[in-house]
Design goal:
Pfam families: LacI (PF00356), Peripla_BP_3 (PF13377)
Shape: elongated
Protein name: DNA-binding transcriptional regulator, LacI/PurR family
Number of helices: 13
Largest sheet: 5 strands, parallel
CATH class of the largest domain: Alpha Beta
Region (Disordered): 317-344
Strand order of the largest sheet: 2-1-3-4-5
GO molecular function: DNA-binding transcription factor activity; transcription cis-regulatory region binding
Radius of gyration: 26 Å
Helix content: 40-55%
Distance between the termini: 74 Å
Strand content: 5-15%
Domain HTH lacI-type: 12-66
């Protein structure tokens, strides 16, 4: 079947839409730019002609006229890992829902700390606001580039940047939830496999864990540091198999899976001898040979709120009231249970 562009012998332009809808080019432009004061029947007729002709507005020309690109830039570090990758997907959906497009500058490298080039690249693509999904506030940023630009940051305030919204969950509460779960099961010999301490989230989870244990009168000093990978979890699990700890909080599910394998290969039964709790509720967690108890974070709510605030800064709207996000959710499965008899 011949398409409209094939029948025309060229790509449809705005004049074709105006002729098909029986309106002026100015009216077509107002409809495409979602301007007010266009009658509903006229708007419907224009949109029907747009669909029938397969017309696509020239975004470059539109940006020249409106001085707007409707582009939001995102810098994401460590996207090889589940947490940053799912956050980036959540950001993409939220940006699209607000009528913007997303320009991404991402790296799987979790240790990159100079983001000057990434910011410049996004600004060259016309970003009207920037989202920083980075491991730590210590990353190097030329704040002069961002001084008057709306920014969403997952690592708190940025010195010299005037318009900042925050994108974060209460990472310390993740550690508190894990500690309460293991304490409620009766464990007193406890250890933590932390994420890399260059990551703010890893530090906050450790501090929340240790604070909850200390408030309950228990020692939280046994902490081993991993790098978020299952391989590091496996190596640390071999060490933990010799410590006598019966309750382990592991800062993400990937490391937790490595820990469980190391424990089982060392002759330590999970959960009969040692309970293991992870974080993220990755899709594979439920389907391990020993299904993994984990803590799930609701990234959608915090992302939608932060994106609303970013667009509000861009467009001069009111930000949302900063209502709290849902608390981290414990998802209990078979990898956690009471301590072995006589060894709390």
């Amino acid at each position: 079947m011949e398409t409209v562009p094939e029948r025309l012998g060229r790509t449809p332009v705005m004049m074709d839409v105006a002729r098909a809808a029986g309106v002026s080019q100015k009216t077509v432009s107002r409809v495409i730019n979602d301007a007010p004061h266009v009658r509903a029947d006229v708007r419907a007729r224009v949109l029907a002609a747009v669909r029938e002709l397969g017309y696509r507005p020239n975004t470059a020309a539109r940006a020249l006229v409106t001085q707007r690109t409707h582009v939001i830039g995102a810098i994401a570090v460590g996207t090889r890992y589940y947490g940053p990758a799912t956050r980036l997907l959540s950001i993409e959906h939220a940006v699209r829902a607000r009528g913007y497009s997303l320009a991404i500058n991402s790296t799987p490298d979790p240790w990159i700390d100079d983001l000057h080039g990434a910011v410049e690249a996004l600004l060259r693509r016309g970003a009207e606001g920037i989202i920083l999904e980075v491991p730590s506030v210590d990353v190097r940023l030329d704040t002069d580039l961002l001084r008057d630009l709306p920014v969403v940051s997952n690592v708190g305030p940025l010195p010299g940047v005037r318009h900042v919204a925050f994108l974060d969950e209460d990472q310390a509460d993740v550690g508190r939830v894990a500690a309460r779960h293991l304490l409620d099961l009766g464990h007193t010999r406890l250890a933590h496999v932390a994420g890399p301490q260059r990551w703010d989230a890893a530090v906050s989870r450790r501090l929340g864990w240790q604070g909850e244990l200390e408030a309950a009168g228990h020692d939280g000093s046994l902490v081993l540091e991993g790098d978020w990978s299952a391989r590091s979890g496996y190596a640390l699990g071999l060490e933990l198999a010799r410590t006598g700890a019966t309750g382990l909080f592991v800062a993400n599910d990937s490391m937790a899976m490595g820990v469980v394998r190391a424990l089982v290969e060392s002759g330590v039964a999970v959960p009969e001898d040692v309970s293991v709790v992870g974080v993220d509720d990755v899709p594979e967690a439920e389907f391990q040979v020993i299904p993994l108890t984990t803590i799930r974070l609701d990234q959608t709510r915090s992302t939608e709120r932060a994106l609303h605030d970013l667009v509000a800064m861009i467009e001069g709207e009111q930000p949302l009231d900063q209502a709290g996000d849902p608390p981290p959710l414990l998802v209990p499965r078979r990898s956690s249970g009471p301590p072995p008899a006589g060894r709390p």
